[in-house]
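name: query_chain
kind: protein
chains: 1
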Amino acid sequence: MSKPQVIDDAEHERVFQTVAAVDVAKKEGVVCLRGPHASRPGGRQSTVWTVPATMNAVAALGGQLAGAGVQKVTVESTSDYWRIWYYVLEAAGLDVQLVSASQVKQLSGRPKTDKLDAMWLARLTEKGLLRPSFVPPPEIRVLRQYTRARTHLTQDRTRCWQRLEKLLEDALIKVSAVASKLTTVSVQDMICALIAGERDPQVLAALARGRMKARHDALVAALDGMFTSHHGEIAQMLLGQIGFLDAQIARATMLIGEHLASIRAAWGIDNDGSTGPGAGTGTDAIVTAAITRLDAIPGISGDLAASIIAETGLDMSRFPTAAHLVSWAGLCPRTVQSGPRTRQAKGQGNSYLRGYLGQAATGATGTATFLGERHARIARRRGGAKAQVATARSILVIIWHLLADPAARYTDLGPGHYQTKIDTNRKARGHIRQLEALGYQVTITQAA
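structure:
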């Protein structure tokens, strides 16, 4: 028999006297107020009513719940319809928690209506059985909207380039097989010339610049196609859309920088003790700015650091350990154990954060750093996909430590870190055993 283990309840696992819950829909929400019974001592009662999902109605609800002494309000995360309930009730001074729908599913065999769903939410809330989702503070929510908008614009631009490549393939123009990508200046000049009516492959290939000039013959063969006027019209539309998206991405990046400068928690402290939007960027700073701290990690740029902060926030107290943050991001498997059998299941996580960390891991690949060597070692044994996830997880652990301690600085362990951890005697004995098993007699001598 194993020794009994004492496990303390988490902060959200506490019993509340008076709670409320909202079953959210697009036009309205069903509210359940649950508290002590008015006439039966020790009893409980629920009051259920419907509230329109409008600003005035939800604000009035906030005042009503605050007057009733509600200690906790639960809102189910249904699409984006939860936002008006969460934001307005939070602004009314109530303690609001957002919970995933997977946690509040009805028990099998129970009837399902909006009224019963709201009552079930309230019962789970009063017993402390719901684990709240992470909702960042207002200034981080604004930053997140900016960074996600930039991400969507960048994805749209990538789709436009892909459509342009498919259009050129339809026109039998195989320039993408010669050039590294369509975004190079040389290829864009050739496409613009095709749109303008130029069809001579020799003239088009002569527009090549830099190292692409050495591929003149291959370009001539690739540019000999059947590009017609309708291809030119569509290509002009796509290039115009790409140019528009470039301008929007640049504007989004500017707005992200301006908003970051207004967040005090992201500021650094200079050596003279002064702080502000531009403080903490020097090497002698007492506390470096949050963006500067993350920018020091291999694979992370300033823009990528801003996107990561928009997802994780700057307050790491929401994640007690780095492992909690890794689990929330979905970079570790979910353990399912029953009796002697243990298996691992895929978790959900934050898809935006995983994407940003994947970009960082790809950027760190091949660098002469600890992260680059870690990726290479895992890729040799388990493949590139698992190596990328493992490297992304390592980057996120580093990020947690840098954000949890503002005075921390990133110091690279170097590509030779793993070599210093090798037990040379043990490794030599292993090689000797393998050679002796093949019938060799081995004598080793220490090199001078």
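note: The chain is about 50% helix and 10% strand.
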